[in-house]
Structures are given as structure tokens and as C-alpha cells.
């Protein structure tokens, strides 16, 4: 027995106007100060007011939201008692808003204890709309929540199946002016979701097609979206949809080792999430493909993408090289050294990196799980660019 | 020789296996918390059996069948029908999926669990290594 979870997805031109159809009393808009400054928050508020809702706004979400921050946001919700929570932003905002929603329903809960096993009865307090303003995280359609424990310098992969949005509004107009660096970082996050969702041990018939399609869209449209920005609205729209499709895929099949290692790299070195998981991805492909023959699905994936896929090893090699090529096309670092991390920094932080990656909730869905020594080796490979395949 | 599950002999065999497992020791080095594993009736098992394990920093300090559930106040309870335990222990059912779908019910400090998921996985790996006779 397993589940496939999805919100109602409203997508395409003018999707934002769906907000005018919401029924309720009070909406809490959760966002960040950049989106307020850019006028996006005002557009959302206008639509919500048109629906007859009172609107309160919490715009203090920061990148890599902390445990303390979601507790502060939950206090805001408890004070204002909304029956709708509307998250407008990238993965940080949407993840933070989901955690606030849970703490709004369960104020007694420590954020670190958010888990997919207990019932929280979230919808007795409020329903949830997610509006992504980046094309990558997929958080608008997943129940995953990543929070940062700043004291322990650790990202926590949390989640609850209840914490999936009721409505995801995927409006490409909101990403037309996404800066190139953010386009690349988040687009590669979507690719990592698609590849890991297809190859994780939780993959299933319901998610395979989504992951394959999303991977193909990212390979095709990310370079154009990165290069031409708002001038290529078609590429922007396809990338925005690809991110949501990848989110549906990995959200119901889980991610794997590149996410476990990427979370550790992000928490220790503050590398943006999408860049961190993409840095790890080619090396984790090589690691998994070097395990028990036939234990990965790279051949099927590479074949679908039109890459050489004669056998598992060839497929893994062609896939990781395609990922590298894409990263280079969008001017991303392909090693930790290129990302500005020194050998000394890596050596000094290795113990923490390994400990966090080993216990990340996504690592255990990898088709091959490294021990501590192997994990260290992979981190050094990410540093140097040496692939063992 | 296969050992009947659930039984005192079985949980002691698992303790021995865990204490020899480098993978478990590595994965559970931060784990603090004892368990009641509650195996509910099914097949030829006509009563609930409770097995106790004291898990501490990668080692199992004590393990036995509990006759009086009031005897201890463990940090965690993991409960489910014997059929579900068998599916998990024979790799027909992923333990995390079993808990997420309510087929096994976990009670305890969830923050500790979410930070140590690999320890849980290695714990189940140990179960699968014990030659076992099931009552179903």
C-alpha cells in the first residue's frame, strides 16, 4: 500500500486569478520581503480581497528557513486565525508555510518532530494554497518540508502527507523575470528531482512517467530559459510546468542520495539548494551504478532521453555527462572547488557533512547506500571532479 | 536453526546480531531510547507479545520478552499485527512505508526518529538476518 498525493493544480496564463474563487473568511499570505517589493504580494492580496477574504501578510520568511522562524510564523497564524494559508514564493517560503500550518494546528509540537506518521488534522484549522515563484522546488505539490537547525548546522528533511497544498497555482507569469542564476539553480533542482524520483527505491508506476517527462523538459528548456529569460516565454512556461511535474514525481517516490548529500552541503557551506543537489547528482549516479549490477534504472532513463544506453554503466556515464553538459550550459559549477569551497574547508567539515548526509531522510531511498568511508570518498569526488565509474 | 517469532529467544538473537553489526553501530551512534515492539495476534499467535530492547548509542544493552507491560516505560512503542511484522522482516514491506501507512504504529519522540532514520533502517536489516519461524 502506498499513496499518490496531489493538490488541485491550476496552471497557465492567468492561473493566479483562481484565487478570486476561494471561499472563506481570512487568508494569511506567507511570503518574503523581495516578493512584496516586486509587487507580487500585492497582486495576490488583490485577488484574495476580490474573493471577499480579509488578508493578513507575514513577509519575514528567509532563505533556508529555521526552526525558530517557523515557530514565529505559527504564532502569527495563531494570532490571526486564518482559514486559508497562501504561500507565495520559492521552496523556502512554501516549506516554511507548510511547517507553520502544522504548528498552527499543533502548537505543542516541536518543528523538528514534524513527521509523516502522526495525524495533525490540518484542515480543521485552514486550507492551503501554494504559489511558486521559482521553477524548481516542486514544493507546491509535495508534502516535504526542509527546515534548517541553525544550532546544529543541519537541514532536516521533514514532512507530513497532510501538508500538501489543497491548490497549487502554477502561473508562468510569476517567473518571467527570474534572474539567470536563480533560473539555473532551481532548474537543476527540478532535474535532480526528476532523476532521483525515477531511480529512488520508492519509484512506482504512478510517478515514473512524470519523472521522465520532467527530465526531458528540463534538458530541452532550461538552457533557453536561462539564456533568454522573459524573451522566451515558451521556455519559461515549460520549465515552470517541469518543476511541478518533477515535484509530483519525486514527491510520491521520494528523492535519494544527491538530496541527502546536497542538504548537508547546503547546511554547512550555504550553497543554494538546487546548486548543491545538482553538484552531488553526477557523482551519486556514478556511485549507484558501480554497485550491484541491475540495481539502478539509468538505462531506461538514458534511453528515454535519447542518450547512449547500451548497458547500465554506459547509461550512467552518458546520463551523468549529460547532466554535466547541462550544468556547464547554464554556467553552474560542477565541482565543490569551482563552487568556491577550499580543500581545507572540506576537510574541516567532513565529519559533519558525512554525519548529516548519512542520516538524511532521503539518503535511505537510494538504490545504493554508502557507508561513512564511501560517503567521504564521494564528497572528495564532488570536490575534485574525479568520477569513479 | 530458525527461531520462533515473537519470543524471548528471538529478541536475544537480534540483540546479538545488532551488537555485531558495524553498519548499525555507525547508523545508530546518536540513538538513545528503548523500545517496546508490540506484536499483535494473528495466525497461530493468539495473544499479544511485547519484546523489549534497550538501544543506546549503536549498541543493544538489554533485550527480552516482557510479561508485564507496566514493567518499563520505554521511550518508543512500535505496534502492529504479526502479519505486518512478517512482511517487514521478509522485505515484502518497507518499514518506513509501513509506519507512514499506519500498518505499523510508532509512538515516541518523533524528532529523534526523524534525525536517525538510517538507524531504523539498519534495525530492520538486522531483523531480516535472523533465521525466523513465523506463526503466520
From TrEMBL, chain A:
It comes from the Bacteria. Residues 183-381 form the Fe-containing alcohol dehydrogenase-like C-terminal domain. Coiled coil: none annotated. The keyword Oxidoreductase applies. SUPFAM superfamilies: Dehydroquinate synthase-like. GO terms for molecular function: alcohol dehydrogenase (NAD+) activity; metal ion binding. It holds the Pfam family Fe-ADH. InterPro entries: ADH_Fe/GldA (IPR001670), ADH_Fe_C (IPR056798), ADH_Fe_CS (IPR018211), Alcohol_dehydrogenase_Fe (IPR039697). The keyword Oxidoreductase applies. Keywords: Oxidoreductase, Ubiquinone. Gene3D superfamilies: 3.40.50.1970, Dehydroquinate synthase-like - alpha domain. Residues 9-172 form the Alcohol dehydrogenase iron-type/glycerol dehydrogenase GldA domain. This is NADH-ubiquinone oxidoreductase subunit 6.
From TrEMBL, chain B:
InterPro entries: SCP2_sterol-bd_dom, SCP2_sterol-bd_dom_sf. It comes from the Bacteria. Residues 18-120 form the SCP2 domain. This is SCP2 domain-containing protein. It comes from Thermanaerothrix daxensis.
Amino acid at each position: 500500500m502506498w499513496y499518490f498525493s496531489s493538490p488541485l493544480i491550476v496552471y497557465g496564463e492567468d492561473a493566479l486569478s483562481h484565487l478570486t474563487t476561494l471561499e472563506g473568511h481570512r487568508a494569511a499570505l506567507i511570503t518574503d520581503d523581495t516578493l512584496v517589493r516586486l509587487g507580487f504580494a500585492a497582486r495576490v492580496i488583490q485577488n484574495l480581497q476580490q474573493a471577499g477574504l480579509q488578508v493578513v501578510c507575514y513577509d519575514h520568511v528567509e532563505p533556508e528557513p529555521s526552526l525558530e522562524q517557523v515557530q514565529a510564523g505559527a504564532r502569527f497564524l495563531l494570532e490571526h486565525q486564518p482559514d486559508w494559508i497562501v504561500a507565495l514564493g520559492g521552496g523556502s517560503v512554501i516549506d516554511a508555510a507548510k511547517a507553520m500550518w502544522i504548528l498552527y494546528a499543533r502548537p505543542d509540537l516541536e518543528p523538528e518532530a514534524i513527521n509523516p506518521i502522526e495525524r495533525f488534522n490540518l484542515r480543521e484549522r485552514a486550507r492551503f494554497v501554494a504559489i511558486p515563484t521559482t521553477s524548481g522546488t516542486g514544493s507546491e505539490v509535495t508534502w516535504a518540508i526542509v527546515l534548517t537547525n541553525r544550532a546544529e548546522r543541519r537541514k532536516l528533511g521533514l514532512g507530513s502527507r497532510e501538508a500538501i497544498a489543497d491548490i497549487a497555482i502554477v502561473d508562468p507569469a510569476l517567473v518571467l523575470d527570474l534572474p539567470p542564476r536563480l533560473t539555473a539553480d532551481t532548474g537543476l533542482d527540478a532535474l535532480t528531482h526528476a532523476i532521483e524520483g525515477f531511480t529512488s527505491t520508492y519509484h512506482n508506476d504512478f510517478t515514473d512517467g512524470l519523472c521522465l517527462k520532467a527530465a526531458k523538459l528540463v534538458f530541452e528548456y532550461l538552457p533557453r530559459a536561462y539564456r533568454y529569460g522573459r524573451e522566451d516565454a515558451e521556455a519559461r512556461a515549460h520549465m515552470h510546468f517541469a518543476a511541478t511535474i518533477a515535484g509530483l514525481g519525486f514527491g510520491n517516490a521520494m528523492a535519494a542520495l544527491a538530496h541527502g548529500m546536497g542538504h548537508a552541503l547546503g547546511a554547512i557551506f550555504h550553497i543554494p539548494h538546487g546548486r548543491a543537489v545538482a553538484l552531488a547528482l553526477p557523482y551519486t549516479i556514478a556511485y549507484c551504478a558501480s554497485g550491484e549490477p541491475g540495481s539502478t534504472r539509468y538505462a531506461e532513463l538514458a534511453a528515454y532521453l535519447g542518450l547512449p544506453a547500451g548497458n547500465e554503466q554506459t547509461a550512467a556515464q552518458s546520463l551523468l555527462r549529460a547532466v554535466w553538459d547541462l550544468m556547464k550550459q547554464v554556467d553552474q559549477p560542477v565541482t565543490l572547488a569551482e563552487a568556491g569551497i577550499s580543500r581545507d574547508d572540506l576537510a574541516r567539515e567532513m565529519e559533519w557533512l558525512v554525519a548529516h548526509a548519512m542520516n538524511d531522510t532521503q539518503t535511505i531511498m537510494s538504490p545504493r547506500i554508502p557507508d561513512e568511508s564511501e560517503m567521504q570518498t564521494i564528497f572528495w569526488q564532488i570536490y575534485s571532479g574525479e568520477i569513479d565509474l | 536453526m530458525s527461531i520462533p517469532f515473537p519470543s524471548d529467544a528471538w529478541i536475544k538473537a537480534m540483540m546479538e546480531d545488532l551488537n555485531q553489526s558495524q553498519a548499525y553501530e555507525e547508523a545508530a551512534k546518536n540513538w538513545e531510547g528503548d523500545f517496546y515492539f508490540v506484536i499483535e495476534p494473528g495466525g497461530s499467535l493468539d495473544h499479544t507479545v511485547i519484546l523489549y530492547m534497550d538501544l543506546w548509542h549503536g549498541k543493544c544493552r538489554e533485550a527480552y520478552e516482557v510479561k508485564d507491560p507496566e514493567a518499563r516505560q520505554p521511550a518508543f512503542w512500535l505496534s502492529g499485527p504479526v502479519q505486518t511484522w512478517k512482511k517487514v522482516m521478509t522485505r515484502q514491506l518497507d518499514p518506513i512505508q509501513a509506519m507512514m501507512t499506519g500498518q505499523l504504529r510508532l509512538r515516541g519522540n518523533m524528532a529523534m526518529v526523524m534525525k536517525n532514520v538510517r538507524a531504523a533502517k539498519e534495525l530492520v536489516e538486522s531483523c531480516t538476518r535472523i533465521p525466523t519461524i513465523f506463526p503466520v
